[in-house]
Amino acid sequence: MKAGLFLTGLTLAASASAHIRHGHRHEHKKRGDNVVNHTEVSYVTATAPDVVVYVDSNGKPISTGPPAGAAPPAYHAPAEQPKAPAAPAHTPPKDTPKAPAAPAHSAPSGGSSSGSGRGITYSPYNADHTCKSAEDVKRDLSKLTGYDLIRLYGSDCNQVANVLAACNAKLFLGVFDIKNLQTEASTLIKQAKGSWDRVDTISIGNELVNSGGASVDEVVAAINTARGIFKAAGYSGNIVTVDTFVAIIANPGLCQASDYAAANCHAFFDGGKTAEQAGDFVKDQAQRVANACGGKRVVITETGWPSQGSPNGSAVPSKENQAAAISSLKSKFDKDMFLFTAYNDMWKVDTAATFGCEKYWGIM
């Protein structure tokens, strides 16, 4: 989901009073040979020589996400891109259902395209890490109303085909692993079955620069390669890469290579904002991204508030605060915003570094 921007190659400033970027756990499933592997990587920055450490004005560490305060300081791209942290060993899930063939394209009621111009993210995984069935996906999406777009992060679990069949909404699709670009793109193309009129955007990677999973040059190269692959398959829509607003501001090459700037932004991780201030905070950061990207269109591809977990400064997880944050966000964005996320992700792993809230961002 979200992860802290690693700043390396710079000397720790003794007089610095800014913000530390703690790791917010980013998890995703990868599927192969009918087995879902659960990848979870926790990114944590620490005080050490040759590292810029950010804290707030009280010396308190700040979590991954936006800079604290109304006027966050400028961020500078690192001299060298950090190496991707090693992921823990995968634990094979219980019997994972075989991906069913894509059903015929007749869309039921869920995710009506007559919604408000906003989107919502969705992940088709059970708590035991197995794939949700086509019927499960259909049931989930039938409960979502008022969203024009649904964002998916990959093509495992036959999710592209299942979601296309289960709703009327347009899709924001994703290639998750750019090191496996050709295979993932081929899988996505196969599941889409030429229904490109239903696809608004394809993302090449999610928060790869922010997490240290890839360099800017590697992401840009992957975007350019993907353009050729999807064009050959008949797709002529938007292609972007998604990263945190912090990473995009520091590395505008990411938005320059994309058809628009696609930024994840969560007020909760600022630590200095209440739920009622979420909309203003995210709107301000969207403007900062637009400024860094030369006035390019900005889409907030993740934003929300957890309903459970530990407080992060002024940001307190609760059902009431989640509702207040979503109301605030909707008051500032009538389009170009994806709420994170449709349902709680009980397959994820919570730690103190994620404030115990990683599972609990679901709105439904």
Automatic annotation (TrEMBL):
Residues 66-89, 98-111 have a biased composition (Low complexity). Keywords: Cell wall, Cell wall biogenesis/degradation, Glycoprotein, Glycosidase, Hydrolase, Secreted, Signal. GO terms for biological process: carbohydrate metabolic process; cell wall organization. It is found in: Secreted, Cell wall. The keyword Glycoprotein applies. GO terms for molecular function: glucan endo-1,3-beta-D-glucosidase activity. GO terms for cellular component: cell surface; extracellular region; fungal-type cell wall. Residues 63-121 are annotated as: Disordered. Residues 1-18 form the signal peptide. InterPro entries: Beta-glucan_modifiers, GH, Glyco_hydro_17. Transmembrane segments: none annotated. PROSITE patterns: GLYCOSYL_HYDROL_F17. Belongs to the glycosyl hydrolase 17 family. This is Family 17 glucosidase SCW10.
